[in-house]
Amino acid sequence: MAQEVQNVMKEIRLDKVVLNMGLGKSGDAVEIAKKALGEISNKKVNDRPAKKAIRDWGIRKGEPIGAAVTVRGNDAQELLKRLLEAKGNRIKSRSFDNMGNVSFGILEHIDIPGIKYDPKIGILGLNVTVRLARPGFSVATRSKHKASVGKHHKITPDEAKAYLTKEFGASVESVSYTHLTLPTKA
Prior knowledge:
Blueprint (H helix, E strand, L loop, with lengths): L12 E10 L5 H14 L4 E4 L14 E9 H14 L3 E3 L9 E5 L19 E8 L23 H12 L2 E3 L13
Parallel strand pairs: 4-7
Antiparallel strand pairs: 1-3, 1-6, 2-3, 5-6
């Protein structure tokens, strides 16, 4: 009986969790969003500037119109558990991309366990992006001699779903569009 050997380079791990609040306006709203994200993550929150000017909306290029924070390591594991709990440990199948990353939204930040309502902050929604990685993925982001990750080493959506189910107890729901009816020509 030969024992099956696991390839350590194929092990999937949680690389980072990014929380983002896009507000579309600057000023006090950005400071409130930064305070809310700081309360959720216990990390330093960064501004997200506008990429271009939109005159009709009163937005100038470079003006902060959002806030984001990146969490890595053990803190990311604990944060992701809380974020999934806020979603009822359910993720839609269409939330996964072809690289094994997953993104979902939380409508009210007070749904996250451990976060209490603060009248100064109010209720804000946020986007969550989870990046999964394997050993060797750094070849795509390093500063010298960048290379692409091989197609057999990339994380498929099915592998990402299996990882989140096994490690975090999340259930993946497939979305059916059977309830939609298309208009028929008379």
